[in-house]
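Sanity check. The docking grid for 2-acetamido-2-deoxy-beta-D-glucopyranose depends on where the pocket ends up, so I'm generating a full predicted complex first rather than guessing from homology. Inputs follow.
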Amino acid sequence: MVSKKKWSCWWIINISLQVSQSALNIPLITDPRFIDNCVKAHNKVRAMVSPTAANMKTMSWDHELATLAKSWAMECKFRHNSCLALSYKCGTKYQFVGENIWLGPLRKFTADSAVVAWYNETVFYDYYTHKCSKVCGHYTQVVWANTNKVGCALAMCPNLAGEGAAIFVCDYGPPGNYLRTFPYINGKTCSLCDKDETCVKKLCQRSAKPAETSNSRPSSRPQGSRPAKGSASQQKACSVLALYLLSIFL
Ligand SMILES: *[C@@H]1O[C@H](CO)[C@@H](O)[C@H](O)[C@H]1NC(C)=O
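Predicted complex below; grid placement will be based on this.
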């Protein structure tokens, strides 16, 4: 006879799996592939600007910005985080933070296509006159020369555009889009990199990379812990497993 507890364990696990079905493809902000995709997408278009940039910095990942992006993405509001323009309200590192938001069906989402969609506003922007004929703010933030840190996050938001709708939020530091300021200085590629930067793939990259702190990484997770025998420990294992499933999927 199958014990009642065993069934309720199944039940909990099934529920958590069903709840998480749509969230299955939502990457964590610590997922190295997601991080790499977001960073590469930005650096790819930053190296593409026309006219060429003399001082365009390489962007790298910032966990604090990604955490900010994640918490805002999970709010599922298609507008900017209200902390952006408030001094030191978006975190401790930056006085102000920049932000881009993409909304669309999850099945069509890649970090690259979202960033390219923002970059594509370049057709509305005239570098020489610094005029914008339609929408340019996402573009100018993506190619803001001084912005060297980015953190992005994805969340499911059926309330915004129906089932399968996802929101992609990227937060930037230091922020771009200052009024009457050019996003970058036009000139020979990398000709205005700082002294401690070298030219890597058309971008000014800090040579002496500060050591990454490893304590911001999540500690190791249980790898499919097997329920132990005995009902108390079984129940405990069940709730641990259910919590674990919820934590990785939500
Ligand atoms: C961006 O623009 C290019 C060139 O016009 C176009 O081929 C591409 O489909 C656009 N991509 C997105 C994601 O808007």
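Relevant for the grid: The CA atoms of residues 104 and 189 lie 34 Å apart.
Also worth noting: The radius of gyration is 22 Å.
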